[in-house]
Write a structure and sequence with these properties.
- By secondary structure, the chain is an alpha/beta fold.
- About 55% of the residues lie in helices and about 10% in strands.
- The protein has a five-stranded mixed beta sheet with strand order 3-2-1-4-5. A two-stranded antiparallel sheet has the order 6-9.
Length: about 325
């Protein structure tokens, strides 16, 4: 077991890092440094290279620090932000500051001993950045399309505004298409074989394939299809207590929202084109299940199939599920 003194909690912001750790004299210390290479070096000088750094995932602001730590072969963990939030709430903390958050993250490291972060390839980060940009462009296109729809309902002339919005939408779609092509090239370079396997599943399109590979980091940490379903936030959850509380069983939704939305659209396609998914959907609807519930089941079915073809390194076939009934 690691020496408890070796942990350092890091609260990350765009400009600074707030660190909380025990110094060489065994005294708890707070230190704020800039979120830059010079700040990283100052922090390492104070904590030592044997320190295990713990931080929460903060979009892109923590990336420079973990790249620096990785090049120096220094141990670090990146924890889900929700886990840190719930840990702080558990202590009934009334006040919030960067120093307090860093201290709680430090305590989280002492209590939970988080696993070391497995650094993905650089291409993964490039693909993730492209994928996020595509999502942002899609939202912008939808926003301007909605503006045009609302303008057409106005009782006065709005043609000039509509024309302007049309030009913006056209440009956004061009940029989106260019990024999608670049993303496909990156995915082929990074996980070409896996991409081919995922795309062989009927109902899984280009966008869904990219989303699945990026979200799972090339399926590197996926040990079962149940884990994959949980990552997508599609696993069932129940809410009941005693004899009075009997909530409906629903999906947990604690996972990839973007992935879940894309899979839902894939399910609409798969229930028509994928024989296995079509049979499942028809059977559930015939048994009285709500159509949306049946579609969620199709989403889970697709993830099971995807997990199977990736782990067995075999292209999807109509008889594939019969061969691998041992999942």
């Amino acid at each position: 077991m690691e020496n408890k003194n070796n942990y350092c909690g890091i609260d990350v912001s765009s400009e600074t890092l707030d660190a909380y750790f025990k110094n060489k004299k065994g005294i708890e210390q707070h230190l704020q440094v800039s979120n830059s290479v010079s700040g990283f070096r100052e922090l390492i000088k104070e904590t030592g290279k044997e320190t295990h750094f713990v931080m929460e995932s903060t979009g892109v602001y923590h990336l420079s620090f973990i790249f620096f730590l990785n090049t120096k072969n220094i141990k670090f963990s990146v924890v889900n932000a929700l886990q840190i939030k719930r840990y702080i709430q558990m202590h009934l903390e009334r006040n919030k500051s960067d120093k307090k958050d860093a201290k709680r993250i430090y305590e989280y490291g002492l209590d939970r001993h988080p696993e070391l972060y497995q650094m993905p390839d650089n291409t993964y980060f490039e693909c993730r950045s492209l994928n996020n940009c595509i999502h942002d462009l899609t939202k912008e296109i939808t926003k301007f399309s909605n503006h045009i729809h609302s303008l057409k309902k106005c009782p006065f002339d709005t043609k000039s505004v509509e024309k302007s919005f049309d030009k913006i939408i056209k440009k956004l779609r061009e940029e989106k298409q260019n990024l999608e092509l670049e993303l496909q090239e990156k995915l082929v370079e990074w996980e070409g074989e896996t991409l081919k396997l995922v795309q062989s599943v009927k109902g899984i399109g280009t966008r869904a394939s990219a989303e699945l590979i990026i979200y799972t980091k090339g399926f590197k940490d996926m040990n079962s299809y149940k884990q994959l379903i949980s990552y997508a936030g599609l696993s069932p959850t129940e809410y009941q207590s005693g004899s009075s509380i009997r909530g409906k069983v629903r999906i947990c939704k604690q996972g990839g929202k973007q992935l879940r939305n894309i899979l839902y659209m894939c399910a609409l396609n798969a229930k028509k084109t994928n024989a296995h998914c079509s049979a499942l959907y028809d059977r559930l609807v015939a048994n009285g299940k709500n159509k949306k519930v049946a579609l969620i089941a199709v989403c889970n079915k697709l993830l099971k199939i995807v997990f199977g073809v990736v782990k067995n390194r075999t292209l999807y076939q109509n008889i594939y599920l019969q061969k691998t009934a041992c999942w």
